[in-house]
Amino acid sequence: MNEIPKIMFGSADRSVTRIGLGGEGVLRTHGRTDEARVVIRTALEMGIEYFDTAPAYSGSEEYLGSVWKEKPERRDSIFHTSKSAQRTYDGAMRDLRSTLSRLGTDYLDLWQIHDVRDQNDIAQIQSENGALRAFLEAREAGTVRHIGVTGHHDPEVLTRCVNEWPLNSVLLPVNPVEGILGGFLTDTLPAAKKRGMAVVGMKVLGGGHYLFTENGLTPERYLRYALSQPVDVVILGCSSPAEVELLVHVAKDFQPMSADEQKELLDLFRPHAERLAYYRGRK
Asked: What's the average model confidence in pLDDT over 226-255?
């Protein structure tokens, strides 16, 4: 049976599966432990190695930690990520300690500065007592192997982070809306690649808002589009084992979209692109 394709994580000496289980879907809930654990175990059993979460994602860290507690022997094969949206050194360090405790691990493969939205965020994060210092110290200590940044509000802001901070990765939106509007895919992504960073794609289905299966706008089509961009990993939040299986199926049978196929998809979104970029900040 064919395996999920893998890729080196940016310039790091570590390979990862090209798809990952996102922290959304059933993982971004409270009180649905059994459902969440089934989704996590399905992803693990089907060969997914990249797992994404964040303190902001409801009970996702606890759900994941409960599965890893059962399978400690799998830790080294898992590329585990989390995030902190704290802007101060002390706040970020508190988040890191809590995340490690909830996940039941003593290190993260990737820790990300979460949801950088504007220039004020940047100023706070890179100040003397800002969160960036916590990220750099944690990487130096080996508590986290790699550090990154995430954002979906303003491509200019995220591009500045990529250009100015000594990061290993960036997490950004990858979908047809972004193919039309530009910014994240035309500026941030190339800047990250130029610096040897890994690029991880999110918002692939637009939070489910872009799905119109009767018109051919299926999860498979959006996943193929995302994987056809020069990204390393694409993550998707899942709410059932069937959704995990679909994600794995697309990755295993992946054939890049031709230029004509991509144009056809983008043309469907072109009249409504700005309105559909609901996750971007409004200037």
From this structure: 97
